[in-house]
Structure formats: C-alpha cells, structure tokens
Amino acid sequence: MRKTVIALAMLTLPGAVLAETPNWNKVDASYLDTDVGVDGAGDLSFDGFRVGGSAAINPDLVVLDNLFVFADFDSVSNDDSGFDLDIDFLSAGIGSYKHLTETTDLYATASFERVESEASAFGLSESGSDKTWGIGIGLRSMLTPNVEVDAKLDYVAFDEELVRFNLSAFYHVTKNVSFGLGYETHRETQDLDVDSLSATVRYSF
Hints:
Elements: H1 2-12, E1 26-38, E2 42-56, E3 67-80, E4 83-99, E5 104-121, E6 124-142, E7 147-156, E8 162-172, E9 177-188, E10 192-204
Antiparallel strand pairs: 1-2, 1-10, 2-3, 3-4, 4-5, 5-6, 6-7, 7-8, 8-9, 9-10
C-alpha cells in the first residue's frame, strides 16, 4: 500500500517525468553543412537541408510488432566560381526495433537508396543517378528524460559500396519538441567521402 501511495505521489508532483522509450513517431527538419571529398579532385563544401521522419506501424495491421517506416531526403549544393553542383540523397524503408531496456531500443532497417547529382558550368550540364538497397543497425537511448542519443551504421550496395555512420543527440524541450546536433559520414570503398554536420528541430507525435 505504501509503495502505491509513493508512486501516485510521484505522478502528481509538478515536473515529475518518468523514463520513456524513444518515440518512433517523429518528423525532422535539418540544416546541413557538408564536405564532399572526391578522389583526385579535393574537397568541396556544400550546404543544404534534410527532411525526414518515421512512424510506428499499428500492430493490428501487421503480423509482427514493433515495426516502423522511415524516410530521409537530403539536398545539398555548391556554387563556386560559376561551377554548380547539386546532390540529392533519398533513404526510405522499413525497420524493426526491440526494447533492450525501458529507455533503450536496438533497431534494424532495410531501405531503398537513391542518389542523384547534377553539375553545370559554362553553359554545359551533366546529371547522374543511382538506385540500390541498404541495410542498417542502430541504437536509440534516452540517457535522461530530456536527452536522447542515436547511433546507426548502414551498408549501401551502390556500384561503389558505401558505409554510412550517423551519430546524433537531441534535447527534448517538451514531450513533442526537441533540438539536436548530428554528424554523418559516408565512406565509399574508393572514390567518395561525405561528411555532414546537422542542426535539427524535431516534432514527435
């Protein structure tokens, strides 16, 4: 009886917050500062944006529990002395998560991946596109009721195989609104390295 009274008192205390698992229902908007290194051509600096999010699938609609869908779209550009280069990335797919603890989820994803580029200079332009699949594994954890970290590693099967790593941290101002900083790196086996810093605002629902 005493334990019940204490638990009820904690729930009614002003500002009392109970630990929660990460929320998979969210939308993100980010500013990106990106460096692209091309073998033999040096580094180029880009800026741009990312929009994305994820949503948990209603377990009544599927056989398995703890499934979610996700999508992220990045668009960055460089305009240097009349040379324009635009690069767009799309990653979208389905994932599954497992509660390791009350505050930490281990998750895995399978994704459709697309990259498109367009370069123009001196009145000439050239574009390219590539599509493939990817798989990933990650960990999301609420370190405190207000602080969340997310780390994810992806393998993407382009012609030049790519490994992508993302690390981010969010501060939850309210239950629905949070702000985050992140670092992401793409490493191709030979020719291309991409490093991005991001500043993100998130709405969870």
